[in-house]
Specification:
Blueprint: E1 3-5, E2 13-18, H1 19-29, E3 35-41, E4 44-50, E5 56-63, E6 69-72, E7 76-81, H2 82-90, E8 97-102, E9 109-113, E10 118-122, E11 128-130, E12 140-144, H3 149-159, E13 165-171, E14 174-181, E15 184-191, E16 197-201, E17 205-210, H4 211-219, E18 226-230, E19 236-242, E20 246-252
Antiparallel strand pairs: 1-11, 2-6, 2-8, 3-4, 3-7, 4-5, 5-20, 8-9, 9-10, 12-16, 12-18, 13-14, 13-17, 14-15, 18-19, 19-20
């Protein structure tokens, strides 16, 4: 069971980063939670969140080298309401940068400064949950380049008509997505060598995942490629690059057969 802990916080920082990556990370996090605790330390910005049913988890890391400016005087935990900050980020140009500023004098306020506007957001009480990441050796990988994202989303969306779950199977020459339920069944095959996809199988694959969680997360991705990794009977991981070396990893538990 995860242990929840709080930390007395005396934040003081001034950092500047790309709007696009920050917006993507927070948009995806809002699929699972309404409030977020961001960790800022000498290494960079990070957060880890899990949904209330413990089916899905997001782990996000943006190293300090991804920032245009990075001044963090001490380790800081910043609590934010995602609906408020997402509304602001949504209106900013993806190519611009944004400053996040907090002072010791006013730790209850985080200042967001873009090229044209400045916002003061009130922070919320912070908490940090000690949630370990799954330790899995993945046997199957499917890389979906950004050009293939729309069609991959469409495949999964149509599967919702027949089942609440999607099945992944295949071998080293193909990755098979299928769904089967009382209303019927559907199937789509990604062959090795198809444009916008790369696949690799070390062992045969056969595993089911929730349509709601998988489709819901992919819906939050904006024109980004990703690498989907899975193993029979194990949680999947979707690795989404952010900037050059930053990333967001999404985990989802498999369907457990009764």
């Amino acid at each position: 069971m995860s242990e929840q802990k709080t930390k007395n916080n005396d934040p003081s920082f001034d950092v500047k980063l790309n709007v696009d990556s920050f917006r993507q990370a927070l948009k995806s996090a809002s699929f699972l939670v309404e409030e977020l605790t961001i960790n800022l330390n000498s290494e960079g910005l990070s957060f880890r969140v899990m949904d209330s049913s413990h089916v899905a988890l997001i782990d996000c890391v943006i190293p300090n080298s991804c920032f245009e400016k990075y001044e963090v005087n001490n380790d800081s935990l910043i609590g934010l309401r995602l609906d408020s900050i997402n509304k602001i980020l949504k209106e900013l140009d993806a190519n611009e940068t944004i400053n996040l500023i907090c002072s010791v004098a006013h730790p209850e306020i985080i200042k967001l400064r873009s090229k044209d506007m400045e916002f003061d957001l009130r922070t919320i009480e912070v908490s940090e949950t000690d949630t370990p990441l799954p330790k899995i050796s993945y046997n199957s990988e499917l890389t979906v380049h950004k050009e293939g994202l729309p069609s991959f989303k469409k495949i999964l969306k149509t599967f919702e008509a027949v089942s609440e779950y999607v099945n992944f199977s295949g071998d080293n020459q193909q990755f098979i997505l299928s769904a089967k339920g009382d209303n019927g069944q559907s199937r789509s095959v990604i062959e090795r060598g198809m444009p916008y996809y790369d696949l690799s199988h070390k062992e045969p694959l056969d595993v089911n995942y929730s349509q709601e969680y998988l489709t819901g997360f992919l819906k939050t991705l904006d024109k980004r490629g990703f690498k989907l990794e899975c193993t029979t009977k194990m949680p999947l991981r979707i690795h989404v690059p952010l900037d050059n070396i930053g990333y967001m990893d999404y985990y989802s538990a498999p369907r457990v057969e009764n």
